[in-house]
Design brief:
With 272 residues, the protein is α/β, with parallel strands linked by helices. The chain has one domain: 3-Layer(aba) Sandwich (Rossmann fold). It is built from seven helices and eleven strands. The longest helix has 18 residues. The N terminus is likely disordered.
Length: 272
């Protein structure tokens, strides 16, 4: 091999090369294997799994939620994993988690094993649950029948209608002493929501934490249900659970009342 004039060449003795090679191979066996999130998980106070709706009109909300959850998990020392279908869900899978976040994923099209495992997770109190927005799309959709158990879990309701052109409205806090509402004012404004209506109010079967004041709808609409809870918990189940209706637009993560409710709900539902 040619070298530039004035430069000395240095050749590593072949015996050294073989020695370093052996040492290098040995060293590789002692390099710790670090999987993504393992450092976070090892020191996490609890682990959450988020079943996130994939694509569609709610993708911007889900994407904003992931950004916010990344910051929250770092600040509060918990770990979050994401799945976009119910295929992985069974008893063994859920045993790794203390919190299940239904991030706009609808209550239909689940695999049979996921239905069984999730039902036990809630009924046996194996972990907590938070559901958003699309989690009450209860009825016959996309060729799937309604899930009766999930309807009862949500207070015995069926989806009826929504405001397709959106409305801004005031949400009134009803139960200011519940941990989910700690630090939330007596009322707050939510911009441009769909405000689902149901065949009846879930109030007789759940503990209502907040309701929307339909008289404040702007613009006004005929799509109303009278008594209109939007945040509630069902105390008939062992799992700590919270349903939060709001969840259509990513701008909700700029709403301090919404993020406070989300923050409180995670810590409470995960029994922290």
């Amino acid at each position: 091999m040619a070298h530039a004039k004035g430069h000395m060449s240095f050749q590593v003795p072949r015996s050294w090369f073989y020695a370093f090679t052996r040492l290098g191979v040995v060293a590789l066996f002692f390099i710790p294997l670090v999987t993504p999130g393992s450092a976070q998980t090892s020191s996490a106070k609890f682990r959450a799994v988020a079943l996130a709706e994939a694509g569609g009109i709610h993708k911007p909300f889900v994407d904003a939620a992931k950004v916010w959850l990344q910051k929250e998990s770092a600040a509060e020392h918990f770990a979050v994993d994401y799945i976009q279908s119910t295929d992985p869900i069974d008893d063994a899978f859920l045993s790794h988690y203390q919190l299940f976040i239904q991030l706009n994923y609808p209550p239909y099209g689940w695999t049979p094993k996921a239905v069984t495992a999730f039902t036990k997770f809630i009924e046996d109190g194996r972990g907590g649950w938070i559901g958003f927005h699309h989690a009450t799309l209860l009825g016959e959709f996309d060729g799937y029948p309604m899930w009766p158990w999930f309807s009862q879990f949500m207070g015995g309701i069926r989806f009826k209608d929504y405001i397709p052109k959106f409305a801004t409205a005031t949400v009134d806090v009803e139960d200011k002493f519940h941990p989910v509402m700690t630090g939330v004012g007596s009322s707050f404004v939510v911009e441009k929501e769909e405000w689902y209506t149901y065949d009846k109010s879930p109030r007789p079967n759940v503990r209502v934490l907040a309701r929307v004041d339909e008289t404040t709808y702007s613009p006004d609409t005929k799509t109303k249900m009278g008594d209109h809870p939007v945040v509630w918990t069902n105390e008939h189940y062992k799992a700590r659970n919270v349903y939060i209706f709001m969840g259509h637009h990513p701008e909700l993560f700029k709403n301090s009342a919404f993020t406070k409710i989300f923050h409180n709900s995670m810590l409470w539902a995960a029994n922290q």
